[in-house]
Structure to design on (348 residues):
C-alpha cells in the first residue's frame, strides 16, 4: 500500500449510487435524474438488456422437453405407378381417400457433454455484460450532464467577472476622458484605457459562445429545448466544488465498482463458455424422441383403438467428418477468448 494513500471509513462517504448530490446543486441533480429517465443512449442499453434476457430464456428452454401438436385433414391421391404400389398384388388398389390425423411430437436432449449447460453459461454471462454496459452508460450520461452543468456555471461566473471588469474599465475610461479634456493626461493614456475596454468587450462573445455550447450539449443529452434548460439553470449558483479526496474505499473496491471492468470480465466469461460449446459439438448428442396420435382414412374412426400409433426411442448423432469445421470453430472461440482477456487486462 502506498505510504501517501489514506482511507477513512465512516459515514462521510458519498452515496455512490447518487454521487452527483455531493455537488449540492439542485439544478444539476434535477438534470442528471431527468437524463437518466429520458436518455436515448440509456434506452438503447435497456433494449440490449431485454434482448440478452430473452436470449437467455431461449437457451433455458433447451433444458426442458419440447412438445408439439399437429392436426391434419385432407384428401390424398397416390399414383398407381409409384413405388408405393410396386409390390401390391391387387389389380385395382385404392389410390384416393380422405385422411385425418392428430399427432403429438416430443423431444428432449440429454446434455451428456455440457453443450446446453455451457450455452446457458455464455448467455447468462452476456446478460450480465449488457447489464454492466447499461450501468456504464448511465454513469457516462450522468457524468456528461454534471460536467456540462459545471462548465456552464463556470462560464457564467467568468462572464459575470468579465462584465464587472468591463464596467470598471468603462468607468476608468470615462474619468480619463475627463482628465484628457482638462489637459491633465496625454493621448497615450487615453488610448491605453480605450484599448483595455475594447479587449474586454472582445472576450465577452467567446464566453457567451461557450455557455451556448454547454447548453446545446445538455439539450442533446436530455432531449430538451435550450429554453427549458436555461429556465432550469436560471437561478444563480456558485460553481459546484469538487471533493479534495473522494472517499472511495480501498483501491480494489474502486476497481470492483467500475462497470466497464465488470463488463469486460463478463465478456471474458462468455467467451470462455463459448469454447465449451464448441468442444461439446465434437462429441455425440443424445436426444430422446417420440411421437404418437391417431390416424384414420375411415370416417368416424379417428379415435378408435385401431387408429392409434406411437413411437419412442433415443436418437444419437455423432459428427464423423466435417472438413475441419468443428476444430476451426474451437480455435476461433479460443481466439475470441484471448481477445476478451486482452480487453479485460487493458481495463484493469
Amino acid at each position: 500500500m502506498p505510504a501517501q494513500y489514506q482511507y477513512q471509513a465512516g459515514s462521510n462517504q458519498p452515496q455512490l449510487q447518487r454521487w452527483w448530490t455531493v455537488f449540492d446543486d439542485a439544478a444539476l441533480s434535477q438534470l442528471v435524474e431527468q437524463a437518466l429517465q429520458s436518455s436515448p443512449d440509456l434506452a438503447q442499453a435497456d433494449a440490449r438488456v431485454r434482448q440478452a434476457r430473452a436470449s437467455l430464456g431461449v437457451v433455458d428452454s433447451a433444458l426442458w422437453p419440447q412438445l408439439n401438436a399437429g392436426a391434419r385433414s385432407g384428401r390424398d391421391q397416390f399414383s398407381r405407378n409409384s413405388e408405393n404400389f410396386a409390390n401390391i398384388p391387387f389389380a385395382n388398389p385404392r389410390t384416393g381417400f380422405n385422411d385425418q390425423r392428430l399427432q403429438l411430437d416430443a423431444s428432449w436432449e440429454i446434455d451428456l457433454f455440457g453443450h446446453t449447460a455451457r450455452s446457458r453459461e455464455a448467455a447468462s454471462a452476456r446478460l450480465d455484460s449488457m447489464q454492466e454496459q447499461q450501468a456504464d452508460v448511465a454513469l457516462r450520461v450522468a457524468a456528461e450532464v454534471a460536467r456540462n452543468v459545471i462548465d456552464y456555471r463556470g462560464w457564467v461566473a467568468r462572464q459575470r467577472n468579465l462584465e464587472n471588469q468591463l464596467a470598471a474599465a468603462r468607468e476608468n475610461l470615462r474619468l480619463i476622458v475627463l482628465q484628457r479634456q482638462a489637459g491633465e493626461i496625454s493621448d497615450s493614456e487615453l488610448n491605453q484605457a480605450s484599448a483595455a475596454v475594447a479587449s474586454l468587450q472582445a472576450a465577452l462573445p467567446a464566453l457567451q459562445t461557450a455557455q451556448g455550447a454547454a447548453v446545446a450539449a445538455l439539450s442533446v443529452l436530455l432531449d430538451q429545448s435550450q429554453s427549458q434548460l436555461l429556465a432550469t439553470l436560471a437561478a444563480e449558483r456558485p460553481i459546484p466544488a469538487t471533493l479534495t479526496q473522494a472517499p472511495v474505499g480501498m483501491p480494489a473496491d474502486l476497481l470492483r465498482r467500475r462497470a466497464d471492468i465488470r463488463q469486460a470480465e463478463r465478456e471474458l466469461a462468455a467467451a470462455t463458455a463459448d469454447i465449451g460449446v464448441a468442444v461439446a459439438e465434437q462429441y455425440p448428442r443424445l436426444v430422446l424422441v417420440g411421437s404418437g396420435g391417431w390416424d384414420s382414412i375411415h370416417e368416424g374412426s379417428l379415435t378408435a383403438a385401431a387408429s392409434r400409433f406411437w413411437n419412442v426411442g433415443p436418437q444419437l448423432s455423432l459428427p464423423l467428418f466435417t472438413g475441419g469445421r468443428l476444430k476451426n470453430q474451437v480455435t476461433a472461440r479460443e481466439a475470441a477468448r484471448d481477445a476478451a482477456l486482452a480487453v479485460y487486462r487493458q481495463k484493469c
The longest strand covers residues 96-110. The longest helix spans residues 115-181. Helices lie at 26-38, 40-61, 115-181, 187-222, 226-232, 251-257, 259-280, 325-347.
